[in-house]
Amino acid sequence: MDILTQGLLGGVLAQSVASKEEKKIATITGVAAGLLADADILISSSSDPMLNIEYHRHFSHSLFFIPFGAFIAMLLLWPILRRHLSIQRLYVFCLMGYSMSGVLDACTSYGTHLLWPLSDDRIALNIISIIDPVFTLTLLTALCLGLWIKSRKIAVTGLILCLSYLSFGFFQQHRAEDVATQLIAKRGHTAIQHVVKPTLGNLVLWRSVYATEQDIYVNAVRVGLFTDDQVIKGESLQRFSMENDLPELDRASTLYGDIQRFMRFSNNYVAFDPSQENVIGDIRYSMLPISANPLWGLVIDLQNPDKHADYRFFRKNDKETRQAYLDLLLGRTIKERIE
User: Fold this and answer.
1) What order do you get walking across the sheet with 193-198 strand by strand?
2) pTM (2 decimals)?
3) Which of 24, 30, 56, 71 gives 20 to 30 Å between its CA and that of 292?
4) What average pLDDT does the structure give for the chain?
5) So what's the pLDDT on residue 46?
């Protein structure tokens, strides 16, 4: 999730094992350790733009890296905190703060190498958005009350509430998935891939993306608490294929290798960007759940096949887009788009 939430979770986890006298120092330690896993965002290369996305949420988020990550956090904090607590207690707080960073990110839709090095697959449970104010405010409240009241019960209660919220996300995701599956059957399509993801900051509006052999279809699914489920028809694109779209590209070229890397990263939900020329995008993500315009993509430069492809972001966050998103979230959709 976002870096603020990661730090808050680390702080609350550390509070849950701290005595009254250790609350402040445990909170500081837990927050710092919770942030450390995301230091992998600093891994980059000026000559290879895709290196950053391949290593973000990689080894530092693995379950097997937790004791090592906590040890690194301890080494970084020990010179500052050695006068305030023992190195054993410092490691405990670092271990608690670091422990759930990868797990929490795996609950989102981006994907995390949670089982590396046993598996290089990205695990994405798709039960909560990368930014969710309810989840974040729950942690913030627990952390602040824990510092004030200095009781472990506050931290434990906050963690239970967060776990309950994630469980609700799991429930909502399955509701949205059932609705989207019914839509596929209704259309008579054969989906070879299908994913349902929460949209930004809520568990009501979901993005459904499914792929057939030839095309990728995008739709919004709204599963409210006291309203009927809705499917809002979105856009569709022809699926990208190396054989059909770029048959002339040398298989030994750097560009070919970069496209293969991008397709693996995007789990093959790849198509040419409808709003830009010579750009293939990851259709799993867009600013609007009914849009096929990707948030990021790879620039295809056939004139320079031996250079690394340029990886770009295309976030359009204007007033019109925000209003369209709000209309979808609140159910103020155009009737003609509801299936």
Assistant:
1) 193-198, 205-211, 215-222, 230-238
2) 0.92
3) 56
4) 94
5) 86
